[in-house]
Predict the structure.
Amino acid sequence: MNQFEKRYQRYRTVIDAKLASALRKSEPVSLYDPTRYVLAASGKRIRPLLILLSCEAVGGAANQAVPAAVAIEILHNFTLVHDDIMDNAPSRRGRATVHMRWDDNVAILAGDVLVAAAYRELLRTRSRAIAHVADVFTEGIVEVCEGQAYDKEFETLRDVSLNDYLLMIAKKTGKLFSVSTEIGALIGGGTEREVRALRSFGTSLGRAFQVQDDLLDITADEKEFGKRTGGDILEGKKTFLLLQAYERAAGKDRRVLRAVIEKRGITPKHVPLVKEIYERTGVIETAKQWIDRDIRQASLHLQKLRDTPARTMLFWFADMVLNRNH
Amino acid sequence: MNQFEKRYQRYRTVIDAKLASALRKSEPVSLYDPTRYVLAASGKRIRPLLILLSCEAVGGAANQAVPAAVAIEILHNFTLVHDDIMDNAPSRRGRATVHMRWDDNVAILAGDVLVAAAYRELLRTRSRAIAHVADVFTEGIVEVCEGQAYDKEFETLRDVSLNDYLLMIAKKTGKLFSVSTEIGALIGGGTEREVRALRSFGTSLGRAFQVQDDLLDITADEKEFGKRTGGDILEGKKTFLLLQAYERAAGKDRRVLRAVIEKRGITPKHVPLVKEIYERTGVIETAKQWIDRDIRQASLHLQKLRDTPARTMLFWFADMVLNRNH
């Protein structure tokens, strides 16, 4: 294990421990059993790590940023619990979702109290920048809600452009990445230039992460990735690949993709066919190029910071996050 | 119109205008149409008024407390939107609820963004006490969620004691009253003693308000109150009256109340019968006594403050709030 891997595991242990003690009350059980269940799920804790490392990268102590790091992970889990209700998702990370294990009402309320719990942790931050931090956090929630609203709207729209999609994922996925890096930089006492650089780094990383996620749906090993290959295709999810391929395809290919978009009679046996269309239209290659470009941009933003071990670890961490199937 | 009535209407106009401009964005429409719809509903704005008047009662300027007053009303509306989903409520204040007019998903997300919008307004507060104010606000959300969780749990429990009920309404209804008075006092720069007195005033007023609400279900004029007389009875809602009467009743009366609690075959024609049992067991009288006692306690708390026009107006306002059917 290299030194970064060790530090990552150490930070993750701290976050997991704080998450476990964030909601210690036992009653009402219908509220605190599900919230504990959610926070006990293992995860990569990407957003908390971005906060801690961004804080360090501008010269702050990671310790200062722990409450905010815990807060962002609780907030992320709130979005998962509510999104899973809206998406009718039966499982997540190999476990039943809250609304399946309990019911919709329990999941609504569990999500609600997680938002408050997230603010409670955030407000423990001791920093002169706390007001600014709270503003960034709050705008983050607003944009994540907007992103989810667009995502749901897109499900019933016939035509969604790649641009619409990019706007949506910037809000739904990207925003919490840039909120994390920005908050970390603010708590660490970064200069305006440093804060801006880290925010932009988060934005680029967030987009690369989402496009990678779309790509993994058809390229990843089922067992390692933990989701069914081609799940997005079967659900007719308007991903980077589908929207881009649809813009490029013609004739029969286009009709097949139209059927995917409209969720008309697509079964697992169509997945290889759609994958072939993705290859033929070159969108898999394009997605990889986009990810590469975003990674390069992310790196350029980081290079505006002083050269410190924390900055090097951020490079390493970005790489780790994006090579999830390795 | 007396001077207090005039001041009340003036403050209400300010709050309504700020609520109308709090969420001005138009897209995504599935997010901002419902939030605007909710905030445009007329209401008494009880909680915002409690903030403004509490701020004044400790010597602050109402103006300072306007962002927090707007925030508490947005937060209150978030709880209504989500509670209405959980309660399957078709209408509120004479209009379709969000989940009925749109759907559950839209209502979940609209509620979520209202929480963020509430914090956004709150964080506009310019006060040395802002960190404390944000803490109180956040704990308020936690307790309201706990109260709602208990309320839902009680629906499926056979036996709920009056004490359980009082704990539940203290969280579900009372808490936002005491949060309002406490926040107002904090923003106004009140002393510790003044803050405590106003918080206790809010707690007493909140309880009186809820017991009054239970009472109005069977005593109020249908047209004026806007709800169907005996609605709580038909729904088997475990109210102050039902729980207290069940503890006191015997024989056939007790069996009838058991049927109400278990929602077994209760129809509108049973409402007068249940009302008779309430009268026979004296619980209507008891509820009135409890309300009187809470009002007296609320007044005693106010008397710890300096005698100012704002304090007098708080007396007047508490009275207005509790005489909703006049």
